[in-house]
Amino acid sequence: MKELNKQKLVLKLQQRAKKLGFDQFGIVRPNASPDNYIQLKHALKNGFHGDMAWLEDRPKRRANPNELWPDVKSIIMLGLNYTPSENPLELLKHKSKGNISAYARNRDYHDIIKGRLKELAGILANKDGAEVKVFVDTAPIMEKPLAEGAGIGWQGKHSVLVSREFGSWLFLGAIFTNIELIYSEPETQKCGTCIKCLTICPTNAFPKPFVLDASKCLAYYNNEHKSHIPLEFRGPMGNRIFGCDDCLAICPWNKFARVTSEIKLQQRAELAAPNLSELLALNDAAFRKFFSGSPIKRLGHSRFIRNVLIAAGNSEDKSLIKAVKLRLSDEQPLIRAMAIWALSQLVAKQEFLLEKTRFLPNEQDLQVAKEWEII
User: Fold this and answer.
1) 24-75: per-residue pLDDT in tens?
2) What is the dihedral of CA 87, 25, 189, 101, to 10 degrees?
3) Any idea which residues carry the catalytic annotation?
4) Which residues have a Cβ under 8 Å from the Cβ of 113 and sit 6 or more positions away?
5) Has this prediction a pTM greater than 0.85?
6) Rounded CA gap, 323 and 332, in Å?
């Protein structure tokens, strides 16, 4: 393709991307980040991925787009602003409210972005010989280094992409194509000496700048972890029932961010600060209905109530004791176990031991039985 034609095509793509609601646009070579594999191998070797075993699957393919698709020559990276209207750190003070990560307070961003990516990719697909593939967390690719190479932002010391215009609040999508386009200038790291994102972390999940140990990350435990949350992370979890925005919210670059204008990403009122008492009462059907269209629905009822029970245990709210006790006889071991822990945090020792004498003799699950030995 001639250079002039490339310029016209890229301009057309940029203009269409803006009309589709994307806030950032850039194009990167597939081999722009050759050290991805080394960094990924280091993280896997040190167990920083926790029990996310899927990250171990073909790391070379994950780190190198050409391993995923040998014919790819250009990758268009798109960013969509989801800056919240309120600072997520403020809700941590309200212990009887559930704190949901900003990205999950409305429609699932996967559903919003993928259709728009396909529409934008259609412009390329109409070119002779052009092939396209679109991804939004749907393939083993490392979007953040690609976005950095495309000039959209840089990976901050918290490992999340940071933008001069939108701070830490960008969703990313990618379009792979087998034709060469005009590549953008890569963004350079602009964190300077700031370490606010590292020092605010409640669990010291950053062994060093730019490196995240997910096995110590609260967002990993209340989002990805499928089993019982280890005791040492329950207290630090606070009222975070889905995700953790601390390291994102504290970033000084957020002061330049504008609240998202995308209506589908503006928070649902009922997800802004839901009462823990109401969430504890949700059965499976009510959970699915309440979180319909939300990424929280993928968590499943058992893990969600597990998280809410931990928040209840941290709340110091005695009015939640009745709701917690009702979960002591839940059919799901994961829920019963966290109900025991929450109860141990909310009631006096004598009352806890009374409930222990009622429930422990009939408990068949070993992990749940161990929870009764807290006191």
Assistant:
1) 999 999 987 756 655 656 666 777 667 766 566 666 666 688 888 999 999 9
2) 30
3) 137
4) 78, 80, 136, 171, 173
5) yes
6) 16
